Amino acid sequence: MPSIDRKNTKPRDDHLVVRNVIKRFGDVVVLDDVSMVIRRGQTAVIIGGSGAGKTTLLRILIGLEKPSSGSVFIDGEDIVPLGGLAMNRVRKKFGMVFQYSALLDSLSVMDNVAFPLVEHTRMKKAAIRERVLSTLESLGLQTSDAQKSPAELSGGMRKRVALARALMLEPEILIYDEPTSGLDPITSRMVDDLIEETRERYGITSVVISHDMASTFRIAHQAFLLIRGKVAASGTPEELADINRNKVSHDFIVTSGVAFERISRPPLPGD
Ligand SMILES: Nc1ncnc2c1ncn2[C@@H]1O[C@H](COP(=O)(O)OP(=O)(O)O)[C@@H](O)[C@H]1O
Ligand SMILES: [Mg+2]
To answer: Measured by CB atoms within 10 angstroms of the end CB, which terminus of the chain is less buried, N or C?
Structure first.
């Protein structure tokens, strides 16, 4: 598997900064003073149980929802005050890999992946075809797969197709919503490798929403634990698991049942 080198990261600039974000729906506070810094080119994993506020935070990050208060900086620009047109420009920086891949089974793999280019660019049909095929190929799919329906593919292959689609508009930031949910452990591992390889190859910043702790340990440079709308802990997965540092996140990880001591990790400089 690709190695995550958590210590040997050069200082990088802040790509995505969430500052004091509060989100209320009526009287219910769903995000309660959330702050986080996500560095360019790294993988941040946002973990938390169901109802913790992960999806709401994701929608705020990509500008689909406005916070009740607080700021969200992307490349240093606060996107919270932006209106429709400016928001469309910002949204192009993001690629989304949806939970369960969200592919249309009535369309071919080719048409699913080509969709963003058809919708948002004036590229010619032949150029679109070429970009789709080369991206599919780089992700381990074959030209013959392009004419299939996504329904004919395995869960892991569907995830590759969803990733290809998310890469079409050359995003700076890729957001994965629960990328391993519904997948068996071996396919999950493969998806983790895919996330890491994509990050490395394209220099992309990755934000992964997850409740899969094994996956978090494999791919995260930084992890943020959300509990009832608050960031209960942040740091490397090893830091979150450290009982002397944060008992809440330690307990969360232990409860998840992941054997984090045994997750293979390559030796890091200084180990
Ligand atoms: N549009 C909405 N209106 C009212 N409540 C909402 C809305 N969206 C989410 N919530 C509530 O916010 C809380 C967090 O939801 P969500 O962000 O989906 O959590 P998660 O993705 O971590 O499971 C839940 O209690 C949910 O019911
Ligand atoms: Mg959710």
So the answer is: C
Q: What does the domain layout of the chain look like in residue ranges?
A: 12-93+171-263, 98-170
Please, what sign has the CA dihedral across residues 263, 173, 97, 254?
A: positive
Mean pLDDT of 247-268: 73
At 125-151, the pLDDT tens digits run 999 999 999 999 999 999 999 999 999
DSSP E strand boundaries for 40-189: 43-47, 69-74, 77-78, 94-97, 173-177
Distance 27 CA to ligand 1 centre (A): 13
Token couple for 168: 């079409």
What is the arithmetic mean of pLDDT over 40-52? 93
The verdict on pTM exceeding 0.85 is: yes
- CB of 210 closer than 6 angstroms to any ligand 1 atom: no
Q: What is the DSSP secondary structure assignment for residue 10, as one 8-state letter?
A: P
Q: What is the CATH number of domain 12-93+171-263?
A: 3.40.50.300
Q: Which residues lie closer than 8 Å to 86 by C-beta, 6 or more apart? A: none
Ligand 1 atom 11, closest CA: 30
